[in-house]
Amino acid sequence: MRSISALLALILAAVPAGADDAPAAEKIAALSFLAGDWQSADGGWRAHYVSPDNGVVLSYSEQREGGRVVYYEFERFAVEDGQACFFPYPGGQRAATFRMVELDAAARRAAFENPENDFPTRIVYHRVADDRLVITLSGGGPEQVFDLKRVSE
User: Fold this and answer.
1) Which of 19, 32, 88, 117 falls between 20 and 30 A from 144, CA-CA?
2) Closest CA relative to residue 90, chosen from 54, 114, 119
3) DSSP per residue over the chain, as a string?
4) pLDDT tier at 152 (50, 70, 90 boundaries)?
């Protein structure tokens, strides 16, 4: 994970937020609750989020089965057109853009939506405890919940 962190940090440094994007950049900064390494109880799902330096959060997630990576996704949380957005790259390919529709920084909860996407149309990140992050994907299919425990900061 250390080499992935270094790569993400280099990419992060190259994508500054503009001054006119300040309110949206503040929303991205509020996503600092995502920072760190997380994994499911069985260790099959792992995620790494960098802190929101320069108005961007980058992440890498993977699903493992039998010691092999069977799925991976890169993610970017950043400002686009003055709005806080989430950009997933499942399997490394750019997918739909999700706009932030809710933010409760005190509750460490953020929701993103794209009603045009097939599945999911809504993604909620909620740090329910210092050592627990719950990610819920819903809309357009059966709800998926990723209940993750902190591995490290």
Assistant:
1) 32
2) 119
3) -HHHHHHHHHHHHT-PPPGGGHHHHHHHHGGGGG-EEEEETTS-EEEEE---GGG-EEEEEEEEETTEEEEEEEEEEEEETTEEEEEEEETTS----EEEEEEETTTTEEEEE-TTSSS-SEEEEEEEETTEEEEEEESSSS-EEEEEEEEE-
4) confident
| Spatial distance between the Cα atoms of 39 and 62, rounded to a whole number of angstroms | 9
Q: Report pTM.
A: 0.84
Model confidence pLDDT, tens digit, residues 17-51? 343 456 999 999 999 999 999 999 999 999 999 99
Q: What is the pLDDT of residues 92-140, one digit of tens each?
A: 998 899 999 999 999 999 999 999 999 999 999 999 999 999 999 999 9
C-alpha distance from residue 143 to each of 14, 38, 77, 94 (Å): 35, 20, 22, 22
**The predicted structure's pLDDT at residue 16:** 43
Inter-residue contact 23 to 129 (CB < 8 Å): no
